[in-house]
Amino acid sequence: MYFPIGWPRQLRPLNAEENWLQISSNRERIFLGLLSARHFSIWYCKPAVQIILYTRDSESLKEYGENELFIWRPDSSMVAICTSKGYILFFKISLDKTKHPCAVYTTFEQRKHLQETSVEDEHIPALVVSPSGSTQIPGNVKCIECIKDELLICTGYGLLQRLRWDGLLNGEFTVTLAHVPFSTDLENSGAAQLSDPDVYITHLEYDSLLHGFLIVLSNGKAAYLTSSSVKFDPGQMQAVWAPDLHDAVSCGVNHKYLLMAFGCENGEGIVYCLDEMTGALQISSRLVVPTRDFPDARHVCGSAEMLKWTPDGRVLIMTWQHGGFGLWSVFGSLLLCSLTFDHSSNHKLFSNPNSRIKSLEWSCEGYHLWIINDDEQTTNEESGKSNLSLQVLSFVKSASNSNCGTTNQGQILLQGEDRLYLSVDEFSSKNWHSQVEHGELISAFGGRHWTVLPIPEAYLTHNFPIRYSAVDSNGKCVAVAGKTGLAHFALNSRRWKLFGNENQEREVVVSGGLTWWKEFICAACYNIPEQRDEIRFYTRETKLDNTFSEVVKVPFQLLLLNTFKDLLVVLCLDAHIMLLKMERKKNKGSYATVITTKIQEVPIGNFVPQPLLVTWVAMTPFRTETASVKIPQQTEFEAESILLNVAGKLLMFQRDRSGMQLKSQTEDKPLPFCAPVMVASSVENMWSMCATNSKKDTRYICDALWLGCGAFGIKVWLPLPHSEDSKAHSFMSKRIMLPIKVDLYPLAILFEAGVILGTISDAVTYKTSGDQFHDSWPYLALERTSQIFLHHVLRQLLRRNLGVHALQLAFSYQSLPYFPHVLELLLHEVLEEEATSKDPTPDPLLPRVVAFIQEFPEFHHETIVHCARKTEVALWPHLFAVVGNPKDLFEDCLLNKKLQTGSSYLIILQNLEKPMVSRQHATLLLDAALESCEWELARDLVRFLKAIDPSEAESPHSPRTRVGSLCIYGASLMGPSSLSSPKEGGSFIFNPSIRAKSDAERKDKKEKVKHTLSCDNIKVPKKQANQTIPQKSEEINSEKLFIDVILNRHARHLLSSYRLYDLACFAANLDDYQLIGWLKREKLRAARVDDFITAINKLHQDFCWPLPLPPLTSVNLSRLSLDSLSPGSTPASSAPSTVTKDETIIKPPDKLDIPLKRYDTSPGSPHSANIQLLPQKSQECSSYANTEISEISDLDGAQDALMYSDMDSNLLHNLSQQLANKGPPESEHQLRFLLQVVQEAGCLEWALILSILLRDITAVVRTVNLASLPDTTTDIVLRMRNGLQKLEEWSQDNCPGYKAVCTAIQNQILRLNGMLISKERPRTRNSSSNSQISLPSPTTPTENITKPFERDCSTEEVEEKETEPEEDTENQSRDCVIS
């Protein structure tokens, strides 16, 4: 295919102010002629330079009239110019031998003088134009066409006259249009002559392969004019009407596909083909601009003035009367439309409605489009003449246009005039699996990044244009062939290899294509010195020279070649196909050669009208299989058929496996081929992947034949294999043709990835300083596009009740990362089609699609909810009537632990049900999210519940209102959580709100709320003040209490289960959750620790904290802390200041309720390893704490000196193991922060456990000091003492590493015993005194925590009672300072 690229080049001919009328090229498209009313100019295509400018004098203009149109002679030796007075002027073109070759070329004022050597190297000829004669044609010339050595002239009198190039009229072959019979087919069905004798031909085009003319009449009708004789005798002429065409204005013929295109006044185009049976014209495709993208295109564009096919007949360009153009493929696929470009930049050629293309022409190989652009808005006010400019637009085309050996590759290869564009680096067929692992496959399929390979200038100078290019199967080597010779490039070494001998390069012309086989280049060539056709093999391992090549002589010209495994398929001009077997053989030298053996020759002359019409040839293992023919297992993947694309018709020649042929077969004689079968029509491209080692579940795609059919999309000839145990019926087909609609033009297919690759030209507007031309034109950039095809194939199979094959096909692609998206696309497209259909669907496909998706339970719920979220709400009833009630689907998600999917269903319930129903389901989902540690989802659900207005809880559903809330609160619920699970290595984040607010702030807020609600200054009726405002406040408070009860209940569950890590993540991810305040209230209930051993083991598991190693020596390390041994140790009270980017650490709050005092922690500081508990109010407690810590510090210092004096290698090894077994740094930071939190909250049991876990003796001492405060109950001290004793017993048998820690804290156990004794004495005295007075015994703290979960459903009064003791507790806890 063809794609424009870059900015157009603007050329300035001599006498640029002239009104240029026409541009046309010669047969080789090397020279281009420009015609104006007075001038005739000839340009060279590469480089684009003007060679000559011929100007008619005033006498000639007066006698013959001004120029109107011209035509080239086939051998480029003459041109014929038609004038306004009915004359035809003949001019002879010859080489100018008298002047220097660069004389005319260097007369341009805008171009610098070039040296003679450079001009000679570019082979720009010097031409001279001289008058040769003239002839007058009565009735004026309306159009002219060249037939071999004669001119066919259509006049205004309705005559078709034959004129020789010497000016003599051949009156014997003059045809009167009124005498020609017109019919609907060539069988003369209803033949009749024209009723209007004044009708004449306005446009005419001739094609030798069609053996006829395309004509457009002055009344708007069009026809195909042909003759039964070769010389077009007047008595044997007949015409066939183009059906359904009454407003034709232009025409264009395609010689490669035998198509006839007509442009209409409504801006559309119709392409016809010739029926081989009846000779009638049939509509092949319509060239229509899509109304969904351009609803007013018919009024904006105007009539289709001009139609031009590319030189190879693959693309048609159509221009409109009011400006702009469109590109269509041969069978009607829209490639480009200039209406899509940016209109704001006033692009002359593409967007401006007042700009029109007067004439255009394709240059050599279609790399350039020469355009005469007429802009009426840029009229020169002084001279009054239109400012017409000549532009050249560059194109790149697919390598498969002319080379069928590149269609089965997984890469896109585009070739331009001087470079190649390759898309192999991102997603070659061998490395796409690795990209899937990183989730980058889909993004790699699109973009504007290409591997650009500039072709060496040394090769292009003599061999422009590039005719063929090919890439190997690995995408690592590329070969090109120009006018002569060839060259190849290796991506690994980034080097080109050219012929070292220029004579060898100029002796060979690649005429039939080239392809790669292993490391060899196979080229169909013509040897100029020996005048013969050859097949040459060049290896990439050696230098490019005929010495290292293998030559195979063939008797006829080669047209096409392709490879299949070790077979080379060659199409010859004599309508024969040769099959050659290739064998790699190691030569005596260091390089390998190819040995070829001709094994078969297949004649196709009886089935193909002309070998030149064959655009593609390939050998495949496919067959139109029937039950009666069984292929042997050893020949299952052998060459079974030959595929030919003959003018868009796909013919299959299969091997004859009848009984007679099998009996006569020998090993040396292969089976012959039977008569062809037409597989499909309107075929542009073909792809196949014949994998011999493919698994059974991938055979569907690998053994399928993919056909690109232009506007009809892609057709897949899919196999339907049956299992060995099942008995297939004889009437069941083994293959089926499935149509697929695509939104791009396919250039390559990645079969294993399930992706179709394509390319588009995207217009980009750039603003350049001082360059008005580039500012007014868009830059066309090549962009890769892709589309998933799997859901289209599945849909077609389900539509045909082939669900078993659809399941097998889907199972083979289930491992793809975007397979859920495939199911979603399948459901969405079927839903949109059936739900929006005006008429009822007799056989709905949606139930079958839903049943198909249910076969994948892991994707079932996600597919449905994602499809619903991307579909209009009006279509939801149609969807859920088939898939089921969304409530049931929500419950299934909860049972299957698919909470993220359940959150999406919650948004659907929000739009379909009452707010009360969505609140109930949100509560269930919140409980499940909390239990599954989905913290981000839980946070979003809490916001969702708070956003529900209590006054609308029972109100009926309002779709408009609910959709609004969906947009506000549903966005965070839809996507997956970005916070990884803590069990998978993710860390938790603590917000600054994790700290409890001061009681003073709480009291101030409560007072403000009470003052606001009961303000005496606001004069409101008593009834309204008592009912309206307080009722609203009570509803809000009740909702908040309801949410707090759920959160507090789960927090109690976590803490009572010793899941301190989960509790920290829970508090960090919930907005404004006061963890410290909650811990203060729960320190006598859920925060109590009855089993120290279980709690420590749980902390080791959750924080990935290793157990301590047992000591290797007898040295007493009981009072030595690991933190004091590490030179870079951090004090227990200090929090980490920096963290890595990927780690999420618990960060200490900016403000602490308990003041923090720091000491210098440098290695030489006396406070480097000491943490002191300083009093804030009580001096007595302060002295006691300081004394204890000082004694411990001195004892540690003495033991450190003893240890370092007697340290040996074993002890150093033990210490290094202890330091290495300390655990991850982030876990240590988290544990120390939690230690600070629980100490501030007064949860001394947890503080003691964390201190022991960190093996921080100083933190243990600090915790025991806090236990000595008066507000610490006896039960807390008792549990601390019992826990330490059980830990010591447990370490004896289960964890010897904790022995040293237990030994170091023996004094603290004794202190706890002393605290218990001191606390029991006052209780005994009080009990004796209370018994004498007979007062009721107070409620012990243990009675308040017997049933902690019963307090979850308490009212506000109970909450206020719970918060009353908190004030005293916090006031007492402020007596100590942690630093």
In DSSP terms, counting alpha (H) and pi (I) runs of 4 or more, how many helices?
38
Number of strands: 58
Radius of gyration from the alpha-carbon trace, in angstroms: 45 Å
Shape verdict: elongated
Question: What summary fits the major beta sheet?
Answer: 8 strands, antiparallel
* End-to-end distance: 76 Å
Helix residue percentage: 25-40%
Low-confidence stretches: 100-121, 377-386, 426-440, 691-696, 959-987, 989-1030, 1113-1207, 1328-1379
Global structural class: alpha+beta
Strand content: 25-35%
Give the overall average pLDDT: 77
Describe the structure.
The chain is of the alpha+beta class and 1379 residues long. Helix content is 31%, strand content 26%. Strands 1, 2, 28, 29, 30, 31, 32 and 33 form an eight-stranded antiparallel sheet that branches. Strands 15-19-18-17-16 form a five-stranded mixed sheet, with no helix packed on it. Strand 3 (20-25) and strand 4 (31-36) form a beta hairpin. The longest helix has 35 residues, at 1022-1056. The two termini are 76 Å apart. The model is unreliable at 100-121, 377-386, 426-440, 691-696, 959-987, 989-1030, 1113-1207 and 1328-1379 (pLDDT under 50).
Short structural summary:
The protein is an alpha+beta fold. The longest helix is centred in the last third of the chain and has 35 residues, at 1022-1056.
